[in-house]
């Protein structure tokens, strides 16, 4: 029983149309029947086809529950104009220049947050070890929650505070275990989290970072059953889950710190596999913080590192960013009959999606199908090789921004009901057609 990734190539679809259904069938054809897809990405496409990578989990984790496909899609009836809500994504494990290391997309998040009523983001954007300075008007959602929100299969509801259950690898290292518990106590005493208890798991998941052919960081997770037994046994006691355990990297964590920022973060991709699975099975927010592999790493003199990873270089546990984010992470709500509740957000309430240019996964595909405007940021370079301009966007649905300054301006124009191009020169004339 494991969580793992697999790559495959499928031919191009005519006009790149109906891609959600196309990729759902292609994934089903390429994975075993006892596996459930939890994460999907197209790392690049050309004449040879779409290069796909899918993270899958053992179907037994759901234990008789109805398994909802990650590709399930419910079209929204239209956009609600009551508020302007932006989804901001920087996928993990793709070596993004901005947001690919340790919370270094936080300034960009604050800039985008100034252009909207709510900014919906995922942990990778703002998690910076002991630091989490998410914008006040942001909502912290696990990645699979954002995907399902855009796909129209869940709603989210803001909460006053979550009861956070903390699970720690109790057999790894006494120094790191004690430091993690101290970090939780610090969170209770300094910003008042509601801790539903700390569980020391003597048989924790074994997480190993792996690099795919595309260069993207994913991984393999084994021994998940003890964690799921614990979480299911105490399901009524918590509203959110924090897991702390080591991640073993073949290249070595020290190599990452000494690479001068040229290497993708070795933890994020496999962490996403873990939290996507936990949240998909239990329908609660979850996040993971890596424990150091050994005391040698903790004692290593890293020198002055790349600013983007400095937050990790000065931390021992990496857990406080997770606790701060999960503290008010929204509740997942199922059922269209519940979406009319006050304060509920659904796909109809999403006004815009901001992504690094070239990123093509379920959130981008969902936005394409829902008619949600997408802003792709060129300056946030990454490993993905997709020409998004080739997709069948509606007129005025897809925008390319050179940087997050431009992205914020485009979002502001959309919020104001303007055609962003009308603010630039030269101004194109409208076309006249005869019937």
Your description of this structure?
The protein is of the alpha/beta class. The chain has three domains: 2-62, no CATH class; 73-155 and 338-435, 3-Layer(aba) Sandwich (Rossmann fold); 159-329, 3-Layer(aba) Sandwich (Rossmann fold). It contains 13 helices and 19 strands. It has helices at 19-30, 106-113, 123-126, 143-151, 174-191, 225-233, 253-258, 268-282, 295-299, 310-313, 320-326, 362-370, 404-415, and strands at residues 2-10, 35-46, 49-58, 85-88, 118-121, 138-140, 155-157, 163-169, 194-201, 206-211, 217-222, 240-248, 286-291, 331-333, 344-345, 352-356, 360-361, 374-377, 398-401. Strands 1, 2, 3, 8, 9, 10, 11, 12, 13 and 17 form a ten-stranded mixed sheet that branches. A six-stranded parallel sheet has the order 6-5-4-16-18-19, with helices on both faces. The protein has a three-stranded antiparallel sheet with strand order 14-7-15, covered by helices on one side. β8 (163-169), α5 and β9 (194-201) form a beta-alpha-beta unit. α4 runs parallel beside α12. It is globular, with a radius of gyration of 21 Å. The chain starts with a strand and ends in a 20-residue tail after the last helix. 50% of the residues are buried. The model has no long low-confidence stretch (mean pLDDT 94).
């Amino acid at each position: 029983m494991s969580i793992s990734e697999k790559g495959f190539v499928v031919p191009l679809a005519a006009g790149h149309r109906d891609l959600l259904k196309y990729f759902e069938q292609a994934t089903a054809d390429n994975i075993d029947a006892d596996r459930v897809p939890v994460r999907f990405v197209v790392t690049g496409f050309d004449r040879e086809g779409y290069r796909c990578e899918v993270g899958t989990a053992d179907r037994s984790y759901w234990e008789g529950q109805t398994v909802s496909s990650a590709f399930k899609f419910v079209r929204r009836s239209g956009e609600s104009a009551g508020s302007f809500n932006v989804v901001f994504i920087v996928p993990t494990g793709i070596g993004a220049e901005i947001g690919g290391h340790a919370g270094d997309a936080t300034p960009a998040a604050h800039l985008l947050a100034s252009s909207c009523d709510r900014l919906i983001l995922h942990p990778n954007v703002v998690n910076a070890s002991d630091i989490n300075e998410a914008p006040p008007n942001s909502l912290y959602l696990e990645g699979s929650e954002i995907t399902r929100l855009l796909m129209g299969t869940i709603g989210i509801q803001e909460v006053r505070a979550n009861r956070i259950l903390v699970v720690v690898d109790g057999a790894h290292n006494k120094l790191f275990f004690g430091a993690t518990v101290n970090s939780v106590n610090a969170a209770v005493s300094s910003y008042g989290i509601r801790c539903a208890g700390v569980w020391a798991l003597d048989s924790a998941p074994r997480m190993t970072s792996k690099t795919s052919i595309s260069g993207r960081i994913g991984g393999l997770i084994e021994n998940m059953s003890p964690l799921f037994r614990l979480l299911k046994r105490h399901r009524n006691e918590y509203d959110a889950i924090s897991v702390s355990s080591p991640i073993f990297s073949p290249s070595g964590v020290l190599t990452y710190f000494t690479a001068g920022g040229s290497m993708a973060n070795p933890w994020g991709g496999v962490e996403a596999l873990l939290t996507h699975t936990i949240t998909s099975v239990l329908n609660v927010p979850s996040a993971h913080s890596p424990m150091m592999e050994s005391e040698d790493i903790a004692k290593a003199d890293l020198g002055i590192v790349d600013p983007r990873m400095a937050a990790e270089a000065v931390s021992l546990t990496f857990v406080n960013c997770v606790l701060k984010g999960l503290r008010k992470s929204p509740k997942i709500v199922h059922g269209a009959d519940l979406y009319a509740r006050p304060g509920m957000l659904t796909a109809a309430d999403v006004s815009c999606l901001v992504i690094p240019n070239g990123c093509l996964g379920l959130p981008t595909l969902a936005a394409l199908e829902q008619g949600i405007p997408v802003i792709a940021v060129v300056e946030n370079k990454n490993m993905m090789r997709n020409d998004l301009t080739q997709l069948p966007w509606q007129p005025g649905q897809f925008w390319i921004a050179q940087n997050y300054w431009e992205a914020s301006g485009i979002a502001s124009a959309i919020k104001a009901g303007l055609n962003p191009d009308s603010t630039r020169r030269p101004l194109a004339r409208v076309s006249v057609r005869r019937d």
